[in-house]
Amino acid sequence: MKLEILSTDKAPAAIGPYSQAVLCRNMLYCSGQIPLDPISGELVTGDIIRQAEQVMNNIAAVLTASGTDFDKVIKTTIYLIDMADFAAVNEVYGSRFPGHKPARSTVAVKSLPRGALLEIEVIAAL
Description:
Helix content: 10-25%
Number of domains: 1
Low-confidence stretches: none
Structural class: alpha+beta
CATH superfamily: RutC-like
CATH architecture: 2-Layer Sandwich
Radius of gyration: 14 Å
Strand content: 25-35%
Distance between the termini: 17 Å
Strand order of the largest sheet: 1-2-3-6-4-5
Number of helices: 2
CATH class: Alpha Beta
């Protein structure tokens, strides 16, 4: 089985021993994205909406660089520090999926890297 490691400078560089995305048999497995600015590498500050928008922009960059897009996303997982943010994140998230609705899980977690309020990972087809 051939694995291809994919990355782009349009999304934040990995902050640990992992890849932005791995391609296996026409399936793209994207690592979770937190709201890091891809240029500065710093956490985007502000409310949950601003952070969610940055996360979705980061995901879009990885998908685009890999030759796919939100229309081919099959499964997502959202990690939230506070479930009270669910509706706001859902609004930002939903704007990227106006017709197609991938399978999804949403999980409350105690903390995330760099103090982020959310993290989202996706699996997409090519």
